[in-house]
Every structure is written in structure tokens, then in C-alpha cells.
Design brief:
By secondary structure, this protein is mainly α. Helix content is 80%, strand content 0%. Helix 5 packs antiparallel against helix 10.
């Protein structure tokens, strides 16, 4: 296991954490920045994934604090959904530790490709979700309180398994599921998404800390950047050019795929 040996490495990882914290709070898929940066610097895939997961937890907490107004009144909803995320994160983390590292390297290529597809398809998905809400509002002007059914819980669990194992684009997957099953303001759903993703990362981080080597130098750099990024994402992130962000994420993801192939 190698540590950070230069100030240049530390700064690059900090900046990747800053970008990841910002994007995770606003959109999701920020792990594509941090994970691929670590791979580019020569860190092993599993060590990179584990250290990245732990380092992003403080950023997730920062983003949740930034979205605290949108979380008002969602306590009952979160009480039902969060356990599914935690359980999924536990299963995903155990799969990462159980499967051989060579298997992870092969699987992560498919996961990054899936993440990139989700990032690129997000605008279409968002338009469809908006159209669906509009139709529901026309049919029923008085919107009923959002409910959490077994179907949503099952899908949130699956997203948690994915997040505990790898995590890039976990937020996009979650916001898609929430938007399909819960008729609520998108910003409130995004706040819910942030809590669920943080729950997955926190559970997976606990497993990793107990069970596998962690590069705490990486964790510290990512954590510092992601905390700042979480606040940026919660305050000014909604004004950022989404298309530019998607283009940058896809570009970095393609570089990562080329490096891993």
C-alpha cells in the first residue's frame, strides 16, 4: 500500500474530493472524479474504492446539512427508507471484500460504463419524471402525501448494494427511483437522496475500516475537499451548468475505462 508522497498528489486528490462533494450533493456520480483520480495516480482499485468511500462520508454530511431546509417534514419517510439503504450498503461492502480483487477490477469496468450511461441519460429521465408529475397533478390537484411501498424499498436496497460495492452514480440511481415512486418536489427528493447515499457510504465505511487496509492520507484529502464541496453544492450548485458537468464526468469516466481495459 502506497501513501501520498508529494504535495501534488495531495492537491489533486483534494480537488477531486472538492468536485465530488459538490457534484454528489447536486447530482450524484462524484465518485467518478475521486476514484479515477486515484487510479490515475497509481493506487490499486480496491484500495482506491475503499479509501474513496470513507473520504466522501464527511462531504455527504456537509451536503445534508446544506439541504436541511428541504429535509423538513421528511422524518417519517426517511425512517422507513434509510434501513433499506443501510442493509444494501452492508451487503455491497461485504461483496467487495469477499470477491477477489481481480473480479472487482473486471466488474468496476461495467459499473463505470453503467454510471456513464446514467449520467448521459439523466436529462431524458428528468424530463420524463417531470411529465409524470404534471400528469398526476392534472388528474389530482390535491396531491396525497407521498407513500413508501415495498417496491421502492426493494429498489433502494438494490441501489444500496451497488453503492456499497462501488457507488459512482448511486445518487442518480436513487433520485430516479424516488422520482418514480414518490410524488414530491425534486429538491426535496434530492435531499432525501443525499441522506440515503450517505447512509450507504457510512455503513460501507464502517465495514471497510474494520476489515481491510485504508489509506488515511487519501481519506483525509478527499474528506477535506468533499466537506467544502458539499457546501458549494448545497448553496450554488443548482446554478451550475449541468451539461458542462455531465460532459466533464463522462470525459473522466472514459479515461478511467481506457486505463482499466
Amino acid at each position: 500500500m502506497r501513501g501520498i508522497v508529494s504535495a501534488t498528489d495531495a492537491m489533486l486528490i483534494f480537488l477531486a474530493g472538492l468536485a465530488a462533494g459538490t457534484i454528489n450533493t447536486v447530482v450524484g456520480s462524484g465518485s467518478l472524479f475521486t476514484y479515477t483520480t486515484l487510479i490515475s495516480l497509481g493506487y490499486p482499485p480496491v484500495l482506491s474504492n475503499v479509501s474513496n468511500n470513507i473520504g466522501l462520508v464527511p462531504g455527504a454530511l456537509s451536503g445534508i446539512y446544506g439541504y436541511r431546509r428541504e429535509l423538513a417534514g421528511q422524518q417519517a419517510r426517511l425512517a422507513r427508507i434509510v434501513p433499506a439503504s443501510i442493509l444494501g450498503g452492508l451487503v455491497g461492502a461485504l461483496l467487495l471484500l469477499t470477491l477477489p480483487s481481480g473480479v472487482f477490477r473486471r466488474i468496476v469496468i461495467a459499473l463505470i460504463a453503467l454510471a456513464l450511461i446514467l449520467v448521459m441519460s439523466q436529462p431524458t429521465l428528468a424530463r420524463r419524471l417531470t411529465a409524470r408529475r404534471s400528469m398526476q397533478t392534472e388528474k389530482s390537484p390535491t396531491v396525497a402525501k407521498p407513500s413508501v411501498g415495498l417496491g421502492l424499498l426493494a429498489l433502494v436496497f438494490v441501489a444500496g448494494v451497488y453503492g456499497g460495492y462501488f457507488g459512482a452514480a448511486q445518487g442518480i440511481i436513487l433520485i430516479a427511483f424516488l422520482g418514480i415512486f414518490i410524488n414530491d418536489d425534486l429538491q426535496r427528493l434530492n435531499a432525501t437522496k443525499n441522506v440515503l447515499a450517505m447512509s450507504v457510504n457510512l455503513m460501507a465505511s464502517a465495514v471497510f475500516i474494520i476489515s481491510t487496509p485504508v489509506d488515511w492520507n487519501i481519506v483525509a484529502c478527499i474528506a477535506a475537499g468533499s466537506v467544502v464541496g458539499g457546501q458549494i453544492g448545497a448553496t450554488v450548485g443548482r446554478r451550475l451548468n449541468a451539461q458542462a458537468l455531465r460532459t466533464l464526468i463522462v470525459g473522466i469516466g472514459i479515461v478511467a475505462l481506457i486505463q482499466l481495459l
